[in-house]
Design goal:
The protein is of the alpha+beta class. The two termini are 35 Å apart. The longest helix is centred in the middle third of the chain and has 19 residues. It has a 4-stranded antiparallel sheet. The protein has a single domain, classed as NADH Oxidase, CATH 3.40.109.10. It is globular, with a radius of gyration of 18 Å. The structure holds flavin mononucleotide. The site of flavin mononucleotide has 9 residues, from β3.
């Protein structure tokens, strides 16, 4: 797919068919996340790829799928054949920036471990479209005990979950009613 089409067509899709996703496609999608840039090449992004149905149900429960059902969505989280949990290893940044060519992370006012997790998220969303698949994202603010469910070490931080599958019709998110802000509110030429 042309990159411009991928950018234009990308939407968070919150429902999927039962058609499985091929393992090689999943691999390419995760690889896009792995290849995303990272501060100082710290490479702190970590991923948990979940396809087991029971585990996906547990993830969906922890992520509050019941609340989405109440809002009129389908069981999009448990139904998605693939979950990619995007994590970050903050310690990888601390260790990298302790090296002689760097100056530590103490004075960072931007936590680049989160920036890099976002870069991986975007790469994964685009890579899913490139495989003619659809993807959604759940932020980590209500993810229950995902560490326990997936055996993720306590020191590894979780950014959220990407759901991936073949798209099925889904209701429009209420957030979209806000409409897109005028381009000029977001983009400034030369000077703010
Ligand atoms: C950091 C972040 C957190 C998000 N968290 C959720 C979430 O918890 N649940 C959800 O349904 N969508 C979530 N979204 C999706 C947004 O609602 C969605 O991107 C936005 O409404 C714009 O829609 P679009 O991506 O389809 O253009 C999140 C998106 C981002 C970038």
């Amino acid at each position: 797919m042309e990159f411009g089409d991928i950018v234009r067509r990308r939407r968070m899709v919150r429902n999927y068919t039962d058609q499985p996703v091929k393992a090689d496609a999943v691999e390419r999608i995760v690889d896009a996340g792995v290849c995303a840039p990272s501060a100082g090449f710290s490479q702190g992004q970590r991923f948990v790829v979940v396809t087991d149905a029971g585990r996906r149900r547990a993830v969906a429960e922890a992520a509050g799928e019941a609340e989405y059902l109440e809002q009129g969505f389908d069981s999009w989280i448990s139904r998605a054949p693939v979950h990619i949990v995007i994590c970050t290893d903050k310690q990888a940044y601390i260790d990298r920036y302790d090296e002689p060519d760097k100056g530590g992370t103490e004075d960072w006012n931007v936590p680049y471990w989160w920036v890099d997790a976002g870069a991986s998220l975007m790469a994964i969303l685009y890579a899913a479209l490139n495989e003619n698949l659809a993807a959604g994202f759940l932020g980590a603010h209500t993810l229950g005990d995902l560490h326990g469910i997936l055996g993720i070490p306590a020191e590894i931080l979780i950014a959220g979950i990407v759901t991936i599958g073949h798209p099925a019709p889904c209701p429009r998110s209420g957030s979209l009613e806000r409409g897109r802000i005028p381009r000029g509110d977001a983009v400034h030429g030369e000077m703010w």
